[in-house]
Amino acid sequence: MKYLLITAIGALVVYLAYRTYRYLNLADSLDKKIENGATILDVRTAGEYATGHIDGSINISLGEIRERYTELDPSKTYITTCSHGLRSVKAVNLLKERGFKNVYNGGAWSDLEKIVKK
């Protein structure tokens, strides 16, 4: 029982450190891209998007992006976002494979929203 508790506390500390690191790193670079007109691309499902999203963001789910990427302008800057940051990484890779040069992972939408509102 003691080892389980120590492991759980250790995992919580690592998780909190990771979230803090991600938030600080996102704030350093993405805020300028947003100020310069980057478009936020939310790759969550339509249902997830309906429960809350960043105002002005575009919603194309990761499952649809392979077909719908043609709706996007490859010359523009996009910041992808999702619930935790994993799908947004995949979306960045997919778009870069299709010739998009200015695509960045914005991580979790709730973290990115804090940057947008500043």
UniProtKB/TrEMBL annotation:
SUPFAM superfamilies: Rhodanese/Cell cycle control phosphatase. Residues 34-114 form the Rhodanese domain. It comes from the Bacteria. Signal peptide: none annotated. CDD domains: RHOD. Gene3D superfamilies: Rhodanese-like domain (3.40.250.10). This is Rhodanese-like domain-containing protein. It comes from Sphingobacterium pedocola.
